[in-house]
Design a protein that fits this description.
The chain has a domain of 39 residues. 83% of the residues lie in helices and 0% in strands. α1 runs antiparallel to α2.
Length: 126
């Protein structure tokens, strides 16, 4: 049985590139959203701690009102408000690195194959 390296490599690469694309389209927007949400939660916790230590009920209500306002301003999903530039960036990050890697690996494979044929050819041996 002869192994078809080219077809096998292409299939492995398609699966890996698809996995990379799903990862990028899910992870990058989600990470930014979680950072924004975590920063707001940390700010609210600090405000509540300061109000509790000072026993200031008005400050406590102000903290809660600011938190509610900030929570309403935070997008409900990670992809809300990306706009065209955000989507183009995500598509670029999802597609350009796999394309570069694909042709880089194909070139390296071609070079190694060329070198290997130089060692194994019977033509011109002395």
């Amino acid at each position: 049985m002869c192994i078809n390296w080219k077809k096998g490599f292409n299939r492995v690469f398609v699966v890996a590139a698809f996995g990379w694309s799903v990862y990028v389209m899910w992870y990058l927007p989600g990470q930014r959203w979680h950072e924004r949400f975590d920063l707001e939660s940390d700010r609210w916790s600090a405000c509540l701690s300061a109000a509790t230590i000072a026993h200031d009920k008005a400050k406590l209500e102000q903290c809660n009102a600011e938190h509610d306002r900030a929570f309403r301003d935070t997008p409900h999903t990670a992809w809300t408000g990306l706009g065209w530039s955000g989507w183009l960036f995500l598509i670029g990050v999802a597609s350009i690195p796999p394309l570069i890697l694909y042709w880089l690996l194909r070139g390296v494979g071609w070079i190694f194959n060329w070198i290997w044929r130089g060692f194994t050819s019977n033509v011109g041996t002395h």
